[in-house]
Amino acid sequence: MNDLTQAQDFQDTVEQINQIPAVKKILEVICTTTGMGFATVARVTKDRWIACAINDQINFGLGVGGELKVGTTLCQQVMDDRKEVVIDHVAEDPIYSNHPTPRMYGLQSYISIPIFLTNGDFFGTLCAIDPNPALLNNDKTISMFKLFAELISFHLESLQNLNETQAKLLEEQSNAEIREQFIAILGHDLRNPVGAISSAAQLMFRTSLDDKNLKLAKIIHDSTIRVSRLIDNILDFASGRLGGGIALNFDNDKSLEETLQQVITELRTVYPEREISADLNLAYPIKGDYKRIAQLFSNLLGNAITHGSKDTPIIVKAKSESDFFELCVINRGNKISQETEKHLFKPFSRGKVHQGKEGLGLGLYIASEIANAHQGKILVTSTDQETCFTFQLNQNLSENL
């Protein structure tokens, strides 16, 4: 550790100790209980002694952050021996009566208790001094100091753990934001080339093509539709994660029935081998973002095509009443397990998919987010016979949007 880093480490420690409200009270209790005039929590290493918190009633002259040469203190002995030093009366003490430290600082009474972190590392000392004798070397006083030292250690480590957790959280949030911004920018920049490919495919349809090239043009066109949906899901996912959520626009240029029929037509074109049976009974208009509902519907219908049985039709039912709207997508196929159902609407969660039908696992998540934005919900029922995804919207609730 270089000098600059070490200095910052000591400064952080001083700040952390002074963030613990109990420390000030502990030092006050020590002085009141023992009658001593100076008490401190000191950070002690082999090279330095730093006062982190102080209660000074004798004008000792050392402030918070003040430093003593560690070699001139008895705290160095506490650190080396990992045990307390307690002196009631220096002049009468057979060990310390001629010791240079008491003479240098004018001490007659002294107590220093080591502070250990829970991993056993030595942190520093809780100590008190006074120019007059005091009754310190007894079980009651020493036990009190040890209890206070343990309390300081507990609070210090709790604060350090909290700061480390907060720092890691901020770092993760920053990394997540960068990732999601990258996804949003990437998705946005992909629109232009995909649009160009789609336009080129449509121009090819207007020319004379043999069966082979017509098939290739259709593959290109159908793939651009699928990629466009993936881009939409990526952008919506990034938008939701970055805090914007799913945006709704109620300025609809088509009816809801026309919008849903358009989705069915598109998917019938992309998957001509799949039968889609639709029963749309939309007698009442609803308040909602029809393009978003179409996106929700497209994701549910695409999911049914991917996971449903190829030999049976997919059934679409929609109905609206004066205060209620419901859209159901039903397919036959394997039952969704209870464990899989728990994760269906989580991002990047996918069930087993057929080769060539792989996706990002965002479709159902985006559909759920669109439903939530409308204050609606998506229900799932799955049996050995069929699976049904149902989007329900209470009109009374949607009117508050």
TrEMBL record:
<keyword id="KW-0808">Transferase</keyword>
<dbReference type="InterPro" id="IPR050351">
    <property type="entry name" value="BphY/WalK/GraS-like"/>
</dbReference>
<dbReference type="GO" id="GO:0000155">
    <property type="term" value="F:phosphorelay sensor kinase activity"/>
</dbReference>
<dbReference type="Pfam" id="PF00512">
    <property type="entry name" value="HisKA"/>
</dbReference>
<dbReference type="InterPro" id="IPR036890">
    <property type="entry name" value="HATPase_C_sf"/>
</dbReference>
<dbReference type="Pfam" id="PF01590">
    <property type="entry name" value="GAF"/>
</dbReference>
<dbReference type="Pfam" id="PF02518">
    <property type="entry name" value="HATPase_c"/>
</dbReference>
<dbReference type="InterPro" id="IPR003661">
    <property type="entry name" value="HisK_dim/P_dom"/>
</dbReference>
<dbReference type="InterPro" id="IPR003018">
    <property type="entry name" value="GAF"/>
</dbReference>
<feature type="domain" description="Histidine kinase">
    <location>
        <begin position="185"/>
        <end position="397"/>
    </location>
</feature>
<keyword id="KW-0418">Kinase</keyword>
<keyword id="KW-0902">Two-component regulatory system</keyword>
<protein>
    <recommendedName>
        <fullName>histidine kinase</fullName>
        <ecNumber>2.7.13.3</ecNumber>
    </recommendedName>
</protein>
<keyword id="KW-0547">Nucleotide-binding</keyword>
<dbReference type="GO" id="GO:0007234">
    <property type="term" value="P:osmosensory signaling via phosphorelay pathway"/>
</dbReference>
<dbReference type="GO" id="GO:0005524">
    <property type="term" value="F:ATP binding"/>
</dbReference>
<dbReference type="InterPro" id="IPR003594">
    <property type="entry name" value="HATPase_dom"/>
</dbReference>
<dbReference type="GO" id="GO:0000156">
    <property type="term" value="F:phosphorelay response regulator activity"/>
</dbReference>
<keyword id="KW-0067">ATP-binding</keyword>
<dbReference type="InterPro" id="IPR036097">
    <property type="entry name" value="HisK_dim/P_sf"/>
</dbReference>
<dbReference type="InterPro" id="IPR029016">
    <property type="entry name" value="GAF-like_dom_sf"/>
</dbReference>
<dbReference type="GO" id="GO:0030295">
    <property type="term" value="F:protein kinase activator activity"/>
</dbReference>
<dbReference type="InterPro" id="IPR005467">
    <property type="entry name" value="His_kinase_dom"/>
</dbReference>
